[in-house]
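Sharing a chain and its predicted structure for anyone who wants a worked example. Both blocks are below, sequence first, tokens second.
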Amino acid sequence: MSYSYADDSNLMVKSRKIETIVQTARDALEKTGDWCNNNNLVLNMGIHIDLNMKWEQHIKALSKRLSTVVYSLHILKYRFLGGLGRTLCS
């Protein structure tokens, strides 16, 4: 089995009317999703937005990931790098 990744794909929508932006974006995302399904590709946008277009779920997930990274840096600083860790992370 092999995996390939494509980074930095963008869909852009421009209009003076918010309704037009929303509808055009929905249409574009639906067509993109259909194309991906037909070609056995998976989209991962890397964001979490609920049905009410709120960011709470995304912020919670991001905070959890960042907390894990900060804790890992803390472990590296004090346990593995000794005095050098204090110098690098200060």
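Comments welcome. The chain has a mean pLDDT of 81.
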